[in-house]
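Box 4.2: Ligand-aware structure prediction
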Amino acid sequence: MLDTSQRGITFTGSGAAAPESLLSNDDLSKIVDTNDEWISSRTGIKTRHIASPEVTLCELATAAGKQAIANAGITAAEIDLIILATSTPDDLFGSASKIQYLLGATRAVAFDLTAACSGFVFALVNAAQFIRTGTYQNVLVIGADILSRWLDWSDRRTCVLFGDGAGAVVCQATKDGDRLLGFEICSNGAQNDCLNLPFSGQSAALSETVSIAKGTYQPIFMKGREVYRFAVAKVPEVIEKALFRADRTPEQIDWLILHQANQRIMNSVADRLKIPPEKVISNVASYGNTSAASIPIALHEAIASDRIKPGDLIATSGFGAGLTWGAAIFKWG
Ligand code: UT7
């Protein structure tokens, strides 16, 4: 039944999960020609969580989702919709339905959303549309990725950057004001070749007239410098646009939570927006780049440690493959 009386969106619970195994920069220096000095100074990353073979994306996402639901003070059975932002599902047909089952979210419809490292922001904006139209009351947004399974572990330009994890947020309908104050989401396929995890196949003849491509997905390829330039140019711009829609200024932001790709990118964006370092939330040192999971993990840690409090104004921005990028301005709680 469409309920249009509760059109605002509020954010009521967060959760996160990461695999136990840790891989340090020193560990990596025994795998490829790299060192702690290079990785730390160029990226800020010190260590990352890596999923062992038996860990599944569904398990990580379910653990994060369960925590977010508990923190929101509701039950899984009350969830109407689950949006899983991921580029690394356990199953290419999608992993959201399995998570719906594992959570016991028996009433929920669930689907995957792919927008790489922008996935969480895109999913949050999607959740808001369903809530604002009155279609759903309780939406679980999960960002989860296990990129370690799609890295070339002999390529030092990429394998040092990524880690695995999951984060989640419960969004609920409210009559008491809308806490998503502004957003902007963007794509530019012209730069698609800068960052890929592409299918590659060899031609195999099925009959005299029909051939198919037989193959699999190839490890992550990235033109690092180009993606860096894209990020430092587009992220401040998209945050400014979202702030304009929110009728807020950078000075009013309590916390800046960017996709955790590189500490230098975070510093540059904060500088451009004149946001002081103490308002920038960063955990890239201990997680690396966890793609769609990076923003909700950072958000959850800041809430769990009482840094972010109800009513705080947060600017968040995701950016990455596609290329895609986006920003959301919201009040927690
Ligand atoms: O989540 C999606 C979004 N992704 C991003 O935001 C990533 C954006 N890009 C970046 O963060 C940076 O471009 C990187 C951290 C990936 C690379 O940093 P950089 O300062 O742009 O380095 P570079 O690619 O220009 O490479 C500089 C040098 C090269 O050597 P030469 O050609 O100058 O002799 C690389 O071969 O560093 C070398 N290098 C390494 N050396 C030691 C590249 N990777 C490594 C490594 N260890 N792991």
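In the box above, the bound molecule is oxa(dethia)-CoA. Residues 34, 38-39, 42-43, 117, 156-157, 160, 224-225, 227-228, 231, 261-262, 265, 289, 320 surround oxa(dethia)-CoA (CB under 6 Å).
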